[in-house]
# Entry
Amino acid sequence: MPGKGSSMSSSTEREQGPRVSEFQANLEILRQLQFFSGLSLEALKLVAYLCARQDFRSGDLLFRQDDRDGTAFYIVSGQAGITRDEEHGGRVLKTYGKGEFLGGLALVCDMHRLFTLRALTGMTCVTLTRDRFTKVLEQFPEVTAKVLQTIAETIVVWEQRLLTGEGDLCEVCGRMAGMSLL
Amino acid sequence: MERTELPVSKRPLSSWILASGLKLQALLLCVILITVFVRVLPLEMQKRIVNEAIRAGALHLLFVYCGLYLAAVLIASGLRYVINVLQNAIGERALAQMRKELYHFILTLPLAFFRKTQPGMVVSALVTELASAGDFVGMAIAVPVTSVLTLLAFAGYLLWLNPLLAVISLGVYPMVFVVLPQLQNRANVANKHRVDITRTLSSRIGEAITGIHEIQGNGSFRLENRRFDDLVDGLFKIRITWNLYRFAVKVCNNLFNNLSPFLVFIVGGYLAIKGRLDLGALVAFLSAQEKLYDPWRDLVDFYQAYQDAKVRYRRTMEYFDAVPDHVLEPDKRKPHDLEGSVEVKDLSFVAEGGVQLLDRINLSLTPGEHLALIGFSGSGKSTLAQCIGQLYKYTSGHILFGGKEVAELSKRDMICNMGFVSQDPFTFEGTIRENLLYACASRVEGNGCGTSEVLPSVDDMIEVLQQTGIFVDVLRFGLNSILAHDEHAELASRIIRVREQFRRDYGIELSNFVEFFDPSRYLHYATIAANLTFGSPNRPSLTVENLPTSDYFLQFLKEIDLPLPLLQLGAEICTQTVDILGPLPPDPVFFEQSPIAPQELDVYRQVADRLQKVGITALAPEDHQRLLELALRFASGRHKMVALPEPLEERLLQGRIRFREKIGKDDPGAFSFYEASEYIYSQSILDNILFGKVKTVNPSVEEKINQTIIQVLIQEDLLETIVEIGMEFQVGTMGDKLSGGQKQKLAIARVLLKAPRLLILDEATSALDNRSQARIQGLVDTKLKGTTTLIAVVHRLDIIRNYDKIAVMKAGRIGELGTYEELIARKGILYELVYGKGAGP
# Structure
C-alpha cells in the first residue's frame, strides 16, 4: 500500500519486502472473489485498476438505507455491521469482516439499499462504483453474462440454503419462498 | 440568413451560382474578357516576327514584337492567377453557404429522421460530399466563359488567317460533341452507383463500430466480414467501370485534339508549297491550333466536374429531403406569449410502421398545475411529454398550449414559453457557464421573444446552481483550477488568508486526510518532480513541462545518481499502464489515474514494445527521455499501478535538500519554495488552501473537506469568486468530464434559469441519488407550484404525492387520472404499483 502513509498498521508490513503496488494488491484480491470469477484477466486488471482504497473510522457510514450509492466493498481490515432504520436502537443484524465482499448487486443495477452499513471498527476497504464497473462492461461485453450467471447461482444457492436449512424452522420463510423463481 | 422559397434539400445546384455573389462573378467576367484578348495577341506577334521582322531582317521590329509578346504572356499569366483566386473565392463561398444552410436545415428535421440516420452520414455529407459541388460553383461561370471565348477568339483568328484551313481543322470538334456525352452518361450512371455504395459502406462501418460489442459478443466476425466484403467488391467493380468511362472520355478527347494538327500539316503544308499561305501564317496557325487544346480540355474537364458535382449534390440533397415538422420562426408576427394552460383532446400518435404509441389521450391543466405521468416503460408517458413539448408531431387530436394548437406553433413560440429536460440530457463541449446559459441564450438569440431580454446575471446562475444541488460540484471545479501567474495577485493573497484561517480552525481535525506540504516528508500525492523541487518555478525553462528536458535539471539528477532508478521506475510505469490501458478508448475514467495522457498512449505503447525487445539500457535517447518524463510526473498516491520503491523515496527526499542547495547557489530566484506564507501558482486553489493535497477519495471525507472549505470561504467572502472560476470549467466532449448526475442537475439548472411557463421534465432526475432527487422535488413543490405548469414523467413513485394530478399510463392510454389520494382510494393501477400486486385486503 504505497502512498497511504495514513494507516500506521501497514508500516510494519512494508519493511518486510519490496512494496507491492495497490493495483497488484487489488488484483490479487479480485482474483479470489466469486463475484468476479467469470472475468478474463484483461477485464480483471481493468477492474483492479479502477478500484479505490478507502479508510473508515469506527462509526463512519459506508452507505445509508435507501441510498443509491452503487458501490461494492471488499473489507481489507476491520468490521462493519448492517442495521435497519426501522429497528429502534440500531440493532446490528449482521456483521461483515476481513475478506468479505458485499454490494456486488449494486454494480449491475441501480437499486436502493435495504440496510445501513456502518463501520464498527477502523476499516480499510477496496471499493468499486457502478459507474466505473459499467465502463468495464462496455469494454468487455461478455462480462455481463458471466456476472449475471454468478448472481443467479448465488440466489439459487441462497434460497436453497434457506429452504433446506432453516426453512422448516421458520414458518414465514416458507410463505415468502420463491426468490429464485424471480 | 437568406430566406429562400425552397427548402435547401430541393434547391437545384445552379441556384448556388446566383447565390454565390454576383459582384465577384461580374468582376471575374471582366478579367476573363481581358485575358482572352491578351491570349490572342502573342499569336499575331508570332506571325509578325516571322513575316515582318525575320524576313525583312529588321532588328528593331524583332525587339518590339518580342517585347509585346513577352508582355502579353506575363499579363496572361498574371490574369490567370487572378481568375483562379476569384474562382476559388466564389467556390469556397458557395460551399460555406451550402454547408451552413444544409446544417441549419438538418437540425430542424424531425427526430424520427435521426433515428435512422447515422451521424457519420451527416458528417460525410457536410464535409466531403458537398465539396465537389462547391468546386463546381466556383468554376460554373469562369471556366466555360473563358474557354468558350478563348476558343471563339482563336477560331476567329484562324478564320481570319485562312478560312479553308480553319474550317478543316475545326471540323473535328463537332464530332466530339456526339461521342463524348454518350461516354459521359455511362460514367454518370456508374458514379451514381458509386455514391450509393459508398454511402451504404459508410453506414455499414459506422454500424459495425458502434455495435462492435454485439459483433464480438456474438463472434459474428465472418457474417459481418462477408457483408462488408460484398460491399467492397461491389464498390471495386463500380469504381473500375466508372474510371473506365472517365478515361475513355479523356482518351477520345485527346485523340481528336491530336488529329487536327495532322490536318493542318497536310492541308497547310500543301497550301504553303503551292504558295497560297505564307510561312508566318502557318506558324501562327500551328501555335493557335496547339493553344486550342487548353481551353478545350478545360471545357471537357468542366463538363466532367459538372456531371460529377450534379450527381453527388443530388444524392446528398435527396438523402436529407425530409420535411421539418414545425416552422422555426413565426410568420410576420411576434412570438406568442402563451399562458401556461395545457389541454389535450383525443390525442393519438401513430409512429412509422403503424405502431400506435398514444391512443385518444384527454387531459387538461390550468396554469401552475403539476401533473405526474407514471407507468411502465413503453406505456407512452415519455411520448406524451414529447408530443406536448413539440418534439414529435402527433398524428391526430389536439394539444392546446395557452389555447393554441401546438402543431401549428412555431419552434420560437415553443421555446419562448416552454422548457424541456430530456431523459438523457445532452451536455455540449464548452464551459459550465455556457451549458448553463444554453437554454437562455437560444431564447435571446435571433429575434428573441418580443420582450427585451438579457442573459441572467451571475447571481441568478449561482442561485440555480444551489437550487439544483450542483453548487458544490462547481465549487469543486473552481477549487481544482490553477490560477494564472500574473492575473490573480489579489485573489492569491486572499487565498493565503483563507489558508491561515483553515489551518487555525480545522488543521488538526483534517490532518488525517490531507498530506500537508512538509519539507521533511515525502509527498505521495504530488509528482516526483514536485517532490524534488518542492516549489513552483519562476523560470519558463523550469516549468513542469520543460523540466525533463532542462539541461540544468538533468545535470542535477546526474549529480545525485537518480537517472537510472528514475528510468527503471518510468519503464515499470510505462509497461504496466500500457498493459492495463492498451486497447481502451480515451475515456476520462480510464485515464484519471494514469500518468500517461490518452493522446500519448500510442507513443508509450511503442516504447513499451521496444523496452520488451531490447531492454532498458539499449533504448534510444528519445525513449529514455520519455521514460524519465513519465517518472517525473508519477505521483504514487494517485498512480496506483506501480509502487514507489522505499529506497527511492529516501533518495528523493535527500534530492530535495540537494536541489534547494544547488539552486540557491546558482539561481536563487528560480523557484518559490512551498512556504505557508506564499501562494503556490503551480498548484490548484484547493491545494493552496489546504497547503497540501487530499489523500482520499472517500466521499464522506470529501464532503467534510468541502463543508469546512465552504465555511472558511464564506467568512472570507470568496465563495462566489471561486464558483465563478468553477463555472469556467470545460466539461469535455459531450460533457464526459461530468457524472450522469451532474449532467442531469446541470440540465435542470439551465431550464430553471430560463423560468418557462410550462416545464416538461422527462425522467429528469433518474440519475440522481436520493438526496438530490428529494432536493429537486422540494424545489418543484415549493417554488414552481402555482407559477409554472409542470408535466413530469416520473419513474419513482415516492415523489408523486404532492402533484396536483397523476396520470397512470398503460399501453398508450391513460388508465387513471386524479390526485394521489383519489387514486390510492380507488385501489386501481396506482395502488397496485405502490403496494405491489395482490396486496391489500
About this structure: The first helix of chain B runs from residue 15 to 19. The CA atoms of residues 538 and 670 of chain B lie 5 Å apart.
